[in-house]
Design goal:
294 residues, alpha+beta, Uridine Diphospho-n-acetylenolpyruvylglucosamine Reductase, domain 2, Uridine Diphospho-n-acetylenolpyruvylglucosamine Reductase, domain 3, Enolase-like, domain 1, 3 domains, 5-stranded antiparallel beta sheet, 12 helices, 14 strands, binds flavin-adenine dinucleotide
Length: 294
């Protein structure tokens, strides 16, 4: 099928983009990598009078260090996030999660901003952004605002972005302490969306006890979720005292899985808990190895 007819605009500045979004309101949609929007238009699952192509807006591309962490502009391709050394060094969880997004052809076009604005609960980046307390930078003709990840994902495919707003960048804080990170997911085939997944970061204080824990989950609720019960259970433990399998099972209580044609709610809950345990074990083992000089 072909998309319904639409007007096409290709502005070159953020100011022009938000001007068009304000002018057309609900009838306009930003076009980023097109990896979600174009199939939906082609299948006529949705239609818009006007598409605002972001691909010529130079200021929407690039990764930059910021306040010890990083700022990733919205149109930065997932493939560039995957290979960027600053991302790998400062936000390892983002680096570990990216190869799980579709196939490399999709990552070559797909953007970090598109993935986050799309707010698919089975997507990798929203769960990482939530786990790491990322921040969305948003622009409109009224000015700019910042929204923390905890307030950004409102429900399935629904975010805090209004129709006339543009996601300009996402910021991630760095962890300046000994820390271990791990990501894993289960999908029916390599490249498919995850049925369930987990992203974990664990940080230690100067005495070797866990004083920072971030556990994000995907595919197990209407939005990405945080396993706050697991995070609380980890706090204050020495690395060797944390039983990842036992603590991982606590994640089931933080999930709100919904069954669909791909997997039942019970399957998602059990797979998600197992994955949380698995990534916890990996992050803890990374910390033990570092402590032992390996
Ligand atoms: C076969 C296949 C497999 C895939 N597997 C995965 C997967 O495993 N995990 C995963 O996360 N994704 C997967 N995707 C989706 C892919 O990652 C998309 O790239 C992503 O969902 C959207 O990014 P995009 O840049 O292509 O955005 P687009 O498709 O262009 O846009 C998506 C939505 O976000 C809005 N939008 C985009 N950018 C902005 C912005 N800056 N401000 C405001 N709104 C904006 C658009 O208006 C649209 O509503 C898959 C896609 C395909 C085709």
């Amino acid at each position: 099928m072909k998309p319904a007819p639409f007007e096409y605009h290709a502005p070159e500045t953020v100011a022009d983009v938000v001007g068009l979004l304000a002018e057309y309101g609900d009838d306009a949609k930003p076009l980023a990598g097109g990896q979600s929007l174009v199939p939906m238009l082609a299948m006529r699952l949705t239609r818009f009078e006007c598409l605002v192509d972001l691909n010529r807006v130079d200021e929407l591309f690039g990764v930059a260090p910021r306040d010890g962490g990083i700022r990733i502009a919205a149109m930065t391709r997932q493939a560039d996030v995957e290979t960027d050394p600053v991302v790998a060094e400062r936000v390892p969880l983002l680096h570990l999660a990216t190869p799980h997004i579709g196939h490399f052809q999709i990552r070559n076009r797909g953007t970090i901003g598109g993935s986050i604005a799309h707010a698919d609960p089975a997507s990798e980046y929203p769960a990482v952004m939530l786990a790491l307390d990322g921040t969305a930078e948003i622009a409109s003709v009224s000015g700019t605002r910042e929204v923390p990840a905890a307030e950004f994902f409102e429900s399935t495919f629904m975010s805090a972005l209004a129709a006339d707003e543009l996601l300009v960048a996402v910021r991630f804080p760095a962890w300046d302490q000994p820390a271990g990170f791990a990501f894993d997911e289960i999908a029916r085939r390599s490249g498919d969306f995850a049925l369930a997944g987990a992203a974990v970061g664990i940080g230690l204080d100067s005495t070797g006890r866990i004083d920072r824990a971030a556990v994000g989950m995907l595919g197990v609720g209407p939005t990405p979720l945080r396993a706050s019960t697991v995070e609380s259970a980890l706090m204050g433990l020495a690395v060797g005292d944390a039983d990842p399998v036992e603590i991982g099972h606590l994640a089931a209580g933080d999930m709100e899985p919904v069954g669909d044609v791909h997997a039942g709610a019970d399957y998602r809950r059990r797979a998600g808990s197992t994955l949380v345990g698995r990534v916890l074990a990996r992050a803890l083992s990374q910390l033990s190895q570092e402590a032992n000089g390996g």
